Amino acid sequence: MTKQRLIRVVSATEAKNRFGAVIKRAYAGDEHLIIERDGIPVVAIVPIQDYERLLAGEELAPEVKEEVGQSSRAASSRARLRAVLAETGPQMPSVAQEDVEQDIQQAIETVRRQA
User: Fold this and answer.
1) In what order do the strands lie in the sheet with 31-37?
2) Does residue 1 sit within a domain?
3) Is residue 89 part of a domain?
């Protein structure tokens, strides 16, 4: 069963003014964004995994292929992490930010002592 893909159309002006948010929608929201100029679709912004699948049959320079592969693996890892956090987050106890920072500092000190 294929996942229903969210496709959103945005104007070139909106894409320019909100570029950070637009690319975040693509990689974090797993959306396809079609950018229009004067009402005409001109480019698309897609998650890197989808781009990698799109180029699977094409010949790429080795360094480009490796960079796209690394980005795709990182995006897949982020998606898996989001899924785990969404599943386990509601089960986690509420912890004060100070306690979290103290635990992190202790872990860093422990690792540094072991090095």
Assistant:
1) 6-11, 31-37, 40-45
2) no
3) yes
Residue 26 has pLDDT above 80, yes or no: yes
Residue 105: CATH number of its domain? 3.40.1620.10
CB 33 within 8 A of CB 15: yes
State both tokens at 59. 């010949």
Residue 51, domain extent = 6-114
Q: Which amino acid is at 94?
A: S
Tokens of 1: 């069963």
Tokens 């004067």, located at residue: 38
Residue 1 has pLDDT above 50, yes or no: no
Residue 3 has a pLDDT of: 60
Alpha-carbon gap, residue 6 to 50, rounded angstroms: 13
Give the phi and the psi of residue 89 in degrees, each rounded to 5: -50, -50
Number of structural domains (the chain) is 1
At 18, list the tokens. Answer: 């909100």
Structure tokens at 36: 């229009």
Amino acid identity of residue 85, one-letter, is: L
User: Rounded distance, CA 66 to CA 72, Å?
Assistant: 10
